[in-house]
Amino acid sequence: MSSRVEILNAGGYRSDGRTQYELRSLEIILGDSSRPRTINLHDSASNPHPNAPDGSAIVGHGLTVVSARVFGPREPLLRREAIHDRAKLSVQVAMLPFSGGMAGRRRGRGDKRLLELGAAIESTFESVVQTGLYPRSQIDIVVEIHQQDGGTLQAAINSVTLALTDAGVAMYDQVVAVSAGLHSTAVLLDLTHHEENDMPHLTVAVMPRSGKVTLLNMEARLHVTRFEAVFKIACEAVTVIRDEMNSVISKRTTSLVASISDSAGPRNLRAGNEMDE
Amino acid sequence: MATVIAMRKRPRGDPALIQRKFFKKTAKGKVIKVLRERYLRDDIPCGINECPYCITQQSRPLSLAVAARHSDYPAGHYVIPDTNIFLNQMDLMESPLFDAPLIVLQTVLEEVRHRSIPLHNRLKSLLRSEDRPCFVFYNEYREDTAVQRKDDESPNDMNDRAIRSAVAWYRHHIGQISSARNKGQPVPRIVLLTDDVANRRHAQTEGVEAVSVSHYVQGSKNSALLLDLLAAGAGDGDQGDKAKSSAIYPEHMSSIMINAGIKAGQLQQGHFNANDYNYLEASTAPQIYSTIDTFKGTVRVAAFPKPVLVVGRQNMNRAMHGDIVAIEVFPETEWRSPADAVVDQDEALKNDDADDTEAEGGDDLEAQEEARIATKLRDGSGKVKEESPTGRIVGIIKRNWRTYVCHLDPASLSSSSETSTSVQAVFAIPTSALLPRIRMRTRQAPQLLDQKILVTIDRWDSTSRYPEGHFVRSLGKVGGKEAEQEALLVEYGVAYGAFGKAIQDCLPPEGDSWVVPPKGHDIWKDREDLRDVLICSIDPPGCQDIDDALHARALPNGNIEAGVHIADVSHFVHAETPMDSEAAARGTTVYLVDKRIDMLPSLLGTNLCSLRPHVERLAFSVIWELTPEAKIVNVRFTKSVIASKSAFTYEEAQIRKDDQSLKDPLTQSIRLLNSLARNLREGRMRAGALNLASPEVKIQMESSESSDPIDVKQKEQLETNSLVEEFMLLANISVAKKIQETFPLTAVLRRHMPPPTTNFETLKDILMKIKGLKLDVSSSGALASSLDLCVDSNEPAFNTLVRIMATRCMLSAEYFCSGNVPRDTFGHYGLASPIYTHFTSPIRRYADVLVHRQLSAAINHAPLHASLHSKDYVERILNNVNRRHRMAQMASRASIEFYVGLAIQSRAPNEAGGVREEAYVIRTFRNGIAVFVSRLGIEGLVTFKHEIEYDAEAYAVTLPNGKKQKPVSLAVFDKVTVKITVEKDTTTQRGKVRMVLVSPVNSEAL
């Protein structure tokens, strides 16, 4: 017997009380309200925190918590790395030492698994960010994994989308990711760590507006006919997460706009985003 | 249902309620904190039909209008049992007499699952049954009933509290419902059923109604009958007198001590096997379970290639057949050879009293035996050959208790008047000789006296000589064919109930009149039309489930096209239907002498899937092109429609083939098949296939209608038998290759592991010493050829006997999932084939159904069902099929044995005469011999009252022969004549085959 806990019991409930197609609670903290909002980076006098990120987001899918910070677009630190007609995207993934616990060993910088995660995020966003608008510049994305309970990649991609939005980086569309698995014949969405261990699962990242899939990550073997079923439901589930993300974005934008109009002068406060259609 | 994808929002409440926190120790000894989320819901239904608050799509089984079935609850009631009720009183809960509506809480369901998987399965099937109002309430996910662990609370206490809070919620909820509907009506009560005194006290203070089982049952309608079903010790206060009686057995070690002992290598773990021949002696074969042992490299288990002997009641310490036990091995000085005396439990334990556990008398024989063994241990050390390790059982790791078929020991009844309804303690004697008697209390003892009954064991305390159990139900009169047959089925766990409505609904609606639709219908898609091919089937006489048919024809290029056509069962039995899961659970059709327990409903088995002659049937065909030397040129697999031209019996086909005057094409094709089969067989034998014998007998009935046996015949083997067999083997091998290629991870295959050479040691030694023959067991080919050399010109049956004994040294073949075992262990030892599966009998074997599905996916006929892509699923199904297969074999063997007994009885009605048969000695003991009667295919024991001269070295006994003649020596393989009688044992009421030696010596006086 592999597990003493039933993945999906006879009443159709999963071990944490959700049903098959229910997603975990999504918590989003967009931007950091405590950080100063000056935009003039070249004028160091007006920017007391030159190292502050331009956009940031913390995303929690259930107990999985991941944060992303975006720096840039800015001048590349190394001149030779600049690309003359577009921006360079660089992603770093770090796992906080206390995040592990249930997800295996501690992973330091340079760990193959983390590099792979970074590469996956990088290739996902390279096609989505309008890099052509920022030639000869660099966009740094730092992803930090705070807590892990399954769906790390999904949380990382969602947090990067939000952080890029917060930073005001131009994108063709949002990228929204979700994980799904197959338990015998039942498709489950948004798996916890415990569920991930027990079944073949995949992570899909979709651009919800066009329906294009930018990333598909699966490490198990799944027959092609079953794969289709899982894949379709995962693609549908993305819209639920997208709606949730957009409502947070618009709330944040509204509060920013409100603070602009409240403040006396037309200070060059940064606008929230220009994403919402 | 449409897919509704939604997000569960976590309430911003107390994190302790929505998260579960626990600490886990890893294998390395690190302690880590684990957090699990919990989403509490408000949409968990209560299951009451009239409830306006709970919304659910499912049908709701509970109704407010419950009949008053209990004297205490005139307004009706629902029962909510706690976990221990299900763990201890499952028979009561399952009884159709216990008809109160049940609410099973999730907490209870999960606790039962953690404690006992078999009980959990029984609970699940109880919940599924349609005639009982049951409902599962997921109390841990409902926000009103979820509880949170307190700091100083044990998990058990928390579960009890969760149960009480759910009961309280139900009480409140049902009040709401009934006030919302109709004020006047009485409200059904919610009753918590628990035997835990502390729990009841808590419930009382919280205002929850709680009663004990015995109290509840006393007030219910069928109390007299239900009280018998109560497990022993269920009462509230009968512990008092137990405490004062002294312990008979040593206490078992706690599981912590056992684990530590096994880790330290002081204890061994193994399956306890009671010995068929000798009740007081049993062997434990330690298994390589403990990874720590093997990890250290001091493989203790390898140090004992022989099973550890456990001798005597004290040492056996309440272990029963099939239990997993922890055993302490004695120092080498106390090792001894396996006992060579035969003790009959009936004799040894005759005088025990059911009421009085400390009965001193009656153990004379047993005491003698134990003393004898002890003396032997002391003085016999010089002579004893091949000592086996001995040991004692110190703890039981896992009990293998189930329901046993028993009958009452009439001697144990204190009052046998028909009218007596007082509670009596009686002994139930299990039919299996491997089990001790079971003590039970019943009110219906006199009525049950001549009945076969089912009894479950509840416990076995160290103060009690015998296990205690309770009555489950009666099967019928002892000796009645029906009752005996059913007893057999129960004993071997064969599901023999009729197929339910849900299963019947899976059959084609046309029923009997279903025919293959005309061409152009969907069925014909990708199906070959083989209706014109000369196909025929060859089966045993009277066969109704014809699942295979054959054809052969010469091709213009000199080669031969041969085809095997198997009933297309997978066309009718689709995955994940009720019929499919029932078939998977049954695993195989069970053949008893006069009864067949079908795996599939008989409409399919004997009609729609049966390849009867002159009707069109759907088939799955394997078609080869073979050279005349039977080399495969190519093979293809296709679904087809066939019309068999004739259904032969083996005999008919044989006669037709041999009749040279017949020149019709059908006969020619049989001849063609036969010549190919001969080549195939030759090739197989060259590759080292074994030709093993097992005693197969056939019971001849008086007439086709009656089921009274008159004689026993050995099954005949005709050339046509092997014709069919060869082609089935060829088909199976070809299919195995194909599905393994296409589904390397989940192919359903069958293998036969080579037996460990140690299995053959005794047989080799016997052959060497007695016949001077050598047995080479290095490979199957070597074994086959050395078996061929085992002949005795004077004794034609000798070779068969050796083959039978060799067969017993082998392992049994098993199904497996190809992704779960290494590639080099796929081989089939007996057939000397590198890969094998079962494809040819989908009507009667479930593995074949799976193989059909995989093959039809492999040829792109139908997509493979998702479940067959999962290794775990295939593995689980095949484990069950393997077990069912084994059980079915044992059941049909036991059924034959029963009928052989009847046949002997009918041939020799006068007890004294008996039947005289030739027999061969197969084992010798200090006070008896085991003989094998080949004509009847039965094995029996000839016991002597006195000890006789016994030479363990030479496997021989010497019998005194009257006063004048000199003693006769008997060794293994010697031919003797025995007189067989069937006598009804007066104490056990068990029809027992008794054998007495007639020649060379009459053993009656011995």
UniProtKB/TrEMBL annotation, chain A:
The keyword Chloroplast does not apply. Gene3D superfamilies: GHMP Kinase, N-terminal domain. InterPro entries: ExoRNase_PH_dom1, ExoRNase_PH_dom2, ExoRNase_PH_dom2_sf, PNPase/RNase_PH_dom_sf, Ribosomal_Su5_D2-typ_SF, RNase_PH. One of its GO terms (cellular component) is nuclear exosome (RNase complex). SUPFAM superfamilies: Ribonuclease PH domain 2-like (SSF55666), Ribosomal protein S5 domain 2-like (SSF54211). It is found in: Cytoplasm; Nucleus, Nucleolus. This is Ribosomal RNA-processing protein 41. It comes from Serendipita indica (strain DSM 11827). The lineage of its organism: Eukaryota, Fungi, Dikarya, Basidiomycota, Agaricomycotina.
Automatic annotation (TrEMBL), chain B:
Its main location: cytoplasm. Residues 353-363 have a biased composition (Acidic residues). Residues 527-861 form the RNB domain. One of its GO terms (biological process) is nuclear mRNA surveillance of mRNA 3'-end processing. One of its GO terms (cellular component) is nuclear exosome (RNase complex). Pfam families: OB_Dis3, PIN_4, RNB, Rrp44_CSD1, Rrp44_S1. Keywords: Cytoplasm, Exonuclease, Exosome, Hydrolase, Nuclease, Nucleus, RNA-binding, rRNA processing. CDD domains: PIN_Rrp44-like. The keyword Hydrolase applies. Its cofactor is Mg(2+). Residues 344-363 are annotated as: Disordered. Belongs to the RNR ribonuclease family. This is Ribosomal RNA-processing protein 44. It comes from Serendipita indica (strain DSM 11827) (Root endophyte fungus).
